[in-house]
Structure formats: structure tokens, C-alpha cells
User: What shape does this take?
Amino acid sequence: MPTNGIITDKKDGKVYIRIEEDTSACSGCAAHALCGKKDCSDAQVILNDRSDLHVNDEVEIEEKENILIKTSLLAYGVPLVFFVAGVLLGNLIPETALPKELLQFLSGCLGLLVGGLLGRHLAKRLSQSIDKYFSINVKNQQQ
Assistant: This one.
């Protein structure tokens, strides 16, 4: 579904697009408390600049591929898989004075840490090419 926005700024090779859609659903979002926005009306998209885009242009942004699923898998799926793998590998640790369950939990936490770092690295790589997941169509060009 396309989203409407207005280009508010262009600097350092980036274009800043303020989202102009109805943001009433934003306040009801479960992630609203965590997303860091004080007000839902300041929703913004930052993409690489293009020569045909100018400040105050009205644009339509559309997601070409389902980037939300990809980013969710990186943020939650990769660490979860590493946590479970750590717990299972913790079962292979030889007997010690510590309870087996504690060792499994600690190795799971270590796996979670590694998975979180890997997910973060992969998300940064994905963000370098974020433009290929969005199409921008100029609706009303300002000169």
C-alpha cells in the first residue's frame, strides 16, 4: 500500500521524507513506547538522494519487497535461533559442580549475545541497500 509524504530536506546525500498519512494507528501500536518518537506526527523516512527529488515535492513511497518481515527476522529470529542452539549445546558440557540447567541457560545467553551481534551486523548491511526495497514516485513536483 503506497504511503504519501513530503520531502522536507536534502543533505549529505540523503533525502528526508515526512509521512503525511493518517497516523492515528501509531499511538495504538505495541512498539510505540519503544520506537522513540515523542509524537506520531513526526514519522519520517530517510533514503538516498536522487536528482529528480526536490524539497517540498509530494511523493508516494511504496514498499517493493516485504522488508518488515526481513528486519523482524534479523531482530528476533536470529537471536532466538542462537539462544536455542546455545541451550542445546549447553547439554554437551561435561558434568561440573554447577547444575546442568544453569550451564545450559548460561550457554543459551552466550548464544543470544552472539545472535544479537550477528543480527545487528546483518541489519546494518541490509540498511546500506534499503533503497532497493522502496519505490518513490513524485506526485507533485515543486521547482
Notes: The two ends are 27 Å apart (CA to CA). The first helix runs from residue 67 to 90.
